[in-house]
Amino acid sequence: MLRTIEYRDGKVYIIDQTKLPTVNEIIAIETVEECFDAIKKLKVRGAPAIGIAAAYGVVLGIADLKEIDFDSFYKELKKVTEYLSSSRPTAVNLFWALNRMEKKALENKEKPVEEIKKILENEAISIQREDEEICRKIGENGAHVLKDGSTVLTHCNAGVLATSKYGTALAPIYFAKEKGWNIKVFADETRPLLQGARLTAFELNEASVDVTLITDNMAAMVMAKGWIDVVIVGCDRVAANGDVANKIGTYGVALLAKAHNIPFYIAGPTTTIDLNTATGEDIVIEERDREEIICGFGKQTAPSDVKVFNPAFDVTPHELIAGIITEKGIVRAPYDINLKKLFD
Ligand SMILES: CSC[C@H]1O[C@H](OP(=O)(O)O)[C@H](O)[C@@H]1O
Q: What is the secondary structure of 259-288 as a DSSP string?
């Protein structure tokens, strides 16, 4: 199975996902600036992977701090976390991971700075290792919405390439395959950055999973033909009432699933649930550069001066969601009550 992120000898190694599927290149990230750039440009992307990368970014950002008192150290640490938190606004895992690193430093404020740095390095490693087990459990729990012979539609990439291993929305598919079930997948290409075409089709092919790539505007037709049994997609932020921010186009897929009586599931770790965000209206939606639409992947496909709207995510209202597959089980409505129970 692919490895999205690896930390060794003080460097972070990632697959540069902007070059997939034609070039599978591992790059070394050695500074916090390179980590910021990798997150901003989606060299590493997907909520859990962004959180893991940011945690390692903190380790890189404090590496040169030496022989200073804790207050001076923590002041510099906060500069690093604030810098990394400005890379992308929507995936809550970024902020969750940075807050966890800050909290770990404060918990060890009495120790020498060199020891704190080692503790933070181990914390980042723990965040990655925990994510592996979380995604495995998401796969196990998500398999309950599948059966031998199921056909799944998914949107964007919420697979191995968005996490430390297994994925979230794709984890149930990998788990079902391990059980010997025959699972087919329809993958939306997912404009404008084509994570479905470039990443989901790539990783499912690598794993010998039966995948059919469709353009986003074909989802209605394949549903109308009765080819889809269930929709499973990832998430970037789950609000306290169950509204979910995910890749742009997800809301449309949820509406189509509703219109065709197809169950629509979200898959994600509890680290993507943000009880401090009341509803989907409170989620900041990242807007990205116009060039991604006008000149995607080097070919100009629109007038250079045309107005462009390029939100990277949209919000699916909780009413359209059959369940949220987490490592702790499948959460169902009423989400405002049942999501809180996950944290009791
Ligand atoms: C497992 S989280 C994957 C989630 O993140 C993606 O966004 P991006 O590629 O911009 O980081 C997309 O929303 C996926 O569902």
A: HTT--EEEE--GGGEETTS-SGGGSPPPB-
Question: The pTM is what?
Answer: 0.98
Query: What CATH number does the domain located at 143-342 have?
Result: 3.40.50.10470
Six-digit token string for 306: 């045309």
What's 5-135's CATH class?
mainly alpha
The ligand 1 atom at the shortest distance from the C-alpha of residue 162 is 1
Q: Which residue has the tokens 């590493």?
A: 44
Q: How many CA atoms within 13 Å lie on the side-chain side of 57? A: 32
Return the bridge partners of 13, or none: 6, 28
Q: How confident is the model at residue 1 (pLDDT cuts 50, 70, 90)?
A: low
Ligand 1 pocket member 195 (CB < 6 A): yes
Span 263-311, pLDDT tens digits: 999 999 999 999 999 999 999 999 999 999 999 888 999 999 999 999 9
Q: Are strands 5-8 and 11-15 parallel, antiparallel or unpaired?
A: antiparallel
ipTM above 0.95, yes or no: yes
C-alpha–C-alpha distance, residues 137 and 269, integer Å: 9
At 334, give phi and psi (nearest 5°): -80, 120
User: How far is 89 from 110, CA to CA, in rounded Å?
Assistant: 33
Question: Cα 80–82–86 angle (5° rounding)?
Answer: 115
Q: Which of 69, 71, 229, 236 is catalytic?
A: 236
The domain segmentation of the chain, as residue ranges, is 5-135, 143-342
For residues 156 and 250, the answer to whether their CB atoms sit within 8 Å is yes
269 Cβ inside 6 Å of ligand 1: no
